[in-house]
């Protein structure tokens, strides 16, 4: 299991150092992983810079064909990737298998996009054309909640546009990304894709490196602020997909039995470790009791176990730091409201916490105001929909949100006034590579997916010719 390598300049190389990767379901060392040094990061950036001229001159179709070849190679190894992903990340094997399938699907769709210029003006005096050119070397920083899929959010568009890339996986989930690097080494020219794992000590060097033209970062808002400040040193282009505290507003005409499974599933996927997960529920007083009861019933019935175990629905938190953080939220929930399901860590090895429903809680408490990023869901009572909307919008975050109710016009009206980059009606967590994705307020800058996301990896150039 310990034959992992960094990918630098087309070569699979050992790290100058090593680090242990822990299985969050057992707290035992899963593998010894190569850890890159500053010198190795410099070498990776230099390799990407050297590969850029030839790669950017290739036709889009040539670049597209290699991305499609990589998607096929990933799909062919779905079982191996999924099992390793569960072991290092913790999510149930069914979710890991879905993540690998979505990775291939995202890669295929994003590789199909076109970068087309636009003729702005053409008359007797001038011809004005807009072109889109690649930026150069892209630095991609990947989080630990979806360590394979989020690579596919960034790499295909960066490469399709003609850029080269240096990928830095999260230190607690580097293994599947390094396995992905083995496939890349077989398919792509040397230096086009580079992967360097670290112990959270190379991010600053990557974001300030003078030869990096753009940073694409997914992670917490606090780290995103540091990335933004670092990138300012050379006015790097940035795309930041940051934290969220997604609110679900449940209207009085909603049927609690109908909406509870959708809300619960969107809150507890990947043990709640999803940036776009439902993080707080505003429920009208007329249905509050019934909705709380339905959510508690689902939480009590959920099977919490090692992600490799048959029937597991919710795995462990991914790492000890997040586990301790979520336990702190449980303490706040006990003090601020009433826990009606879950509320405790599971007495076994691993970072397991039962899915938890908290009622009789309100804004102004940690469990409501902050992003818990774990399987803990507060349910807040409201009497007027305008009041619920105002409270939902009071958050500094604005990644996603949802409105649940039978009257489509009312739900749509509220949805249009939510301060979120994505708002769903009678569902949550429905997204795809053809749908632009970006956050409002402190949930990020820029857009991922679709043509809008592809444009983020380009520089607009205007050719203005006299006639």
Report the portion of residues in β strands.
Answer: 15-25%
Number of distinct helices: 15
Widest sheet: strand order? 14-15-16-13-12-18-19
Rg is: 23 Å
Topology record:
Elements: E1 6-8, E2 11-13, E3 17-23, E4 28-35, H1 38-57, H2 60-76, H3 78-89, H4 93-111, E5 118-122, E6 126-134, E7 137-141, H5 149-160, E8 164-168, H6 175-187, E9 193-195, H7 203-208, E10 214-218, H8 221-231, E11 237-241, E12 246-250, H9 256-268, E13 278-284, H10 285-301, H11 320-336, E14 338-341, E15 356-359, H12 366-369, E16 376-382, H13 385-393, E17 397-398, E18 400-404, H14 408-416, E19 422-425, E20 440-441, E21 444-445, H15 450-455, E22 458-466
Parallel strand pairs: 7-8, 7-10, 8-9, 10-11, 12-13, 12-18, 13-16, 15-16, 18-19
Antiparallel strand pairs: 1-2, 3-4, 5-6, 6-22, 11-21, 14-15, 17-20
Helix pairs in contact: 2-4, 2-6, 3-4, 4-5, 9-10
Could you characterize the architecture of this molecule?
The chain is of the alpha/beta class. Helix content is 40%, strand content 23%. The chain has 15 helices and 22 strands. The strands form six sheets. A seven-stranded mixed β-sheet has the order 14-15-16-13-12-18-19, with helices on both faces. It has a six-stranded mixed β-sheet with strand order 9-8-7-10-11-21, sandwiched between helices. A hairpin with a 3-residue loop joins β5 and β6. α2 crosses α6. The N and C termini lie far apart (65 Å).
